[in-house]
Write a structure and sequence with these properties.
The chain is an alpha+beta fold. It has seven helices and seven strands, in the order αααβααββββββαα. It has one domain: Pleckstrin-homology domain (PH domain)/Phosphotyrosine-binding domain (PTB) (PH-domain like, Roll), CATH 2.30.29.30. The chain has a seven-stranded antiparallel β-sheet with strand order 4-3-2-1-7-6-5.
Length: 234
């Protein structure tokens, strides 16, 4: 099989696996029905403004001494960790992230409350040594894959978030095991739960398609590089 034939085969497969948007999906963004306002109006367990720590991928793989250089020079600030405002809403079985309280759809995939761990952070991480003005405490939300850091105004607010998240997680686990605590679970929360589960599955499918697409591109590039090398030596 020639390189051109193989590329046509790979390109055909890539088109099948790469994420595509149909006209209907373009009209209806992923996460429709999960606006911040609609959740806030449903009296969720907790909600409020936080700052999320964003750590660029390049920075995270740099040796410690290079990270210190990046932090020391403002000209390299684009490579350094930064704080970005988010609006968190704990509603039902999920913790949702929004750009602000007027956002129409969540940002990214919501956290499944059954699978997270939360705790306060004491600031030993270099990235947490300097907090933005008016923010003095940090708590983390951890999944199987990543730690997410959120800054809030004071220790009391951090403890409220942690206590509320832990209580919500325990209630969800009890309810899923059939051990109801008797606490009311509004119908609106159940409705948002169904949309939240659909959003998580959609994000997972998109992520898997992107991974498959990137893998095919890498395989194709490796094949072409090998063909060129064989042609050169031949």
């Amino acid at each position: 099989m020639s390189t051109q034939d193989l590329r046509q085969r790979f390109n055909g497969s890539s088109r099948d696996t790469a994420p595509t948007l149909s006209p209907s999906s373009m009209d209806r963004p992923i996460g429709s029905g999960l606006s911040a306002k609609s959740m806030i109006d449903s009296s969720p367990q907790h909600h409020g403004i936080v700052l999320k720590l964003h750590i660029p991928l390049l920075y995270s793989i740099l040796p410690l001494f290079l990270q210190r250089i990046v932090n020391a020079f403002s000209i390299l600030s684009f490579m350094a960790p930064s704080w970005k405002q988010r609006y968190l809403v704990l509603c039902g079985s999920f913790l949702y992230k929004f750009n602000d309280e007027t956002a129409e759809v969540p940002k990214g995939s919501p956290f499944d409350m059954e699978t997270i761990a939360v705790k306060t952070i004491d600031g030993t991480l270099p990235e947490l040594s300097t907090l933005p003005p008016n923010f003095s405490s940090v708590f983390s939300v951890s999944t199987f894959q990543k730690h997410h850091y959120y800054a809030v105004m004071d220790q009391e607010e951090a403890l409220i978030w942690i206590r509320t998240l832990k209580e919500a997680r325990q209630e969800i686990i009890k309810r899923n095991m059939g051990h109801s605590s008797g606490m009311p679970y509004p119908q609106s929360w159940a409705y948002f739960d169904s949309l939240g589960r659909s959003l998580v599955k959609s994000k997972q499918r998109i992520r898997q398609r992107m991974e498959d697409y990137n893998m095919r591109e890498m395989e194709m590039s490796s094949f072409e590089a090998g063909s060129l090398a064989r042609g050169y030596h031949g």
